[in-house]
């Protein structure tokens, strides 16, 4: 029997699904010891700090992660940072293979004048802020104005727009960060405008996210009926519509025609608008858009502009990788061939490999393919040093699976008394205290 040691860097969905693939592909002759290394004291990546708090069902995948983590041969090393506490070359030396699963955490920039004004922020900051990520708990978000603009026509933009537009009492039974919930309760924002730069037929939303918008109890949602029917005509003029696009456009059309509740919280979604400039004296006051049209199937600028007075701008225009030492990046992703990094014993999975696309489940097949490639390239097992001993010798406090379970239990217990799934701890030292 051969036992190979594999390090997985990053405890998000792609990392757990890589571990699951290793566990599934074990045989009597081939076993794996898996060490998962995570920068934060807490695992689960975007399931903890990305998924919107009002989407608890999506978070139930964490049960799968915990099953993987409590399977024999798996160890968690939380609070250990690649490049600071241990280098990639050291890990490549110790382990038979290393899997990078560090995601894409940096928000893409609009690259327009005024983007750096106060209260112009990226969804890459705002989302982890409302999700209690320790690195973003002190983000300055001013919700004292009435109008917010969200840029982008993807699911992150929808999440952000919904979080700003809903009545925060809908968030009371969720695990939204306590500080964010308090601020959202005081929020004066009543109008949220989301802008996509192309047509409704090009939007990256998925239908379940669209279909839940009219279910918001205290918010009216608006699409322009003419804009959506023009998009439907353009899209169907080229032949039969793909099923996803058809259901997306139908969901938008249904909302555009639906009766409104007449409440003061409004979420309006607009298309064919490219942000050109954010204006204001030191802080956001107005945003200017170039108006586009679709001509011959292409989105082109009309040369006309429009502007809207606003108090907050959040751009949700996709992500790129935070560059880590020892890795080469290309187009915002780790340079790789089918997941393998430069003929080495290192591999990459998830958003760090393919870019920020797909839903959580997409990572399952993606990680599984890379792990099959990894296994096919394995040589004789090494007798590497034990990571636990190395970290101890460096006096690095790491969080084991048991330590994480103690943090988890403390959060769940704090939530129970308030009728919430958990109250997330936001201070790293406090987390380490619970982890013992
Ligand atoms: P996304 O789906 O790629 O959408 C990005 C949006 O930003 C697109 O509409 C894009 O427009 C727009 N954009 C890009 N550059 C722009 C610019 N310079 N100016 C204006 N608009 C610009 O990315 P995402 O929303 O960050 O989501 C990432 C992934 O996570 C997606 O696969 C998404 O489905 C997934 N996700 C899923 C859920 C869920 O299942 N509930 C929730 C959140 C995220 P163009 O198309 O014109 O480039």
Summarize the structure in short.
With 436 residues, the protein is α/β, with parallel strands linked by helices. It has 16 helices and 18 strands.
Report on the architecture of this protein.
The radius of gyration is 23 Å and the shape is globular. The chain has helices spanning 13-24, 46-49, 56-59, 62-69, 88-94, 123-130, 155-165, 178-186, 207-211, 225-236, 243-257, 351-354, 362-376, 387-393, 401-416, 428-435; strands at 2-9, 30-38, 74-78, 97-100, 106-107, 120-122, 147-151, 191-195, 220-223, 266-270, 273-279, 286-295, 298-309, 312-315, 319-320, 329-330, 333-334, 346-348. The protein has a 6-stranded parallel sheet with strand order 6-14-7-8-10-9. The protein has a 5-stranded parallel sheet with strand order 3-2-1-4-18, sandwiched between helices. It has 436 residues and is α/β, with parallel strands linked by helices. The protein starts with a strand and ends with a helix. The longest helix has 16 residues, at 401-416. The chain folds into 2 domains: 2-105 and 320-399, Rossmann fold; 109-317, FAD/NAD(P)-binding domain (3-Layer(bba) Sandwich), CATH 3.50.50. A hairpin with a 2-residue loop joins β16 and β17. α1 (13-24) packs across α13 (362-376). The protein contains 16 helices and 18 strands.
CATH topology of the largest domain: FAD/NAD(P)-binding domain
What Rg is obtained from the alpha carbons, in whole angstroms? Answer: 23 Å
Number of domains: 2
Named CATH architecture of the largest domain: 3-Layer(bba) Sandwich
CATH superfamily of the largest domain: FAD/NAD(P)-binding domain
Structural class computed from helices and strand pairing: alpha/beta
Number of DSSP-assigned strands = 18
Oligomeric state of shown chains = single chain
Instruction: Determine the mean pLDDT.
Output: 97
What ligands are attached or bound here? Answer: NADP nicotinamide-adenine-dinucleotide phosphate
What's the CATH first level of the largest domain? Answer: Alpha Beta
Low confidence ranges: none
Outline the biggest β-sheet: 6 strands, parallel
Q: How many helical stretches?
A: 16
End-to-end distance: 36 Å
Give the CA-based shape.
globular
Order of strands across the main sheet: 6-14-7-8-10-9
Work out the strand percent.
15-25%
Helix share bin = 25-40%
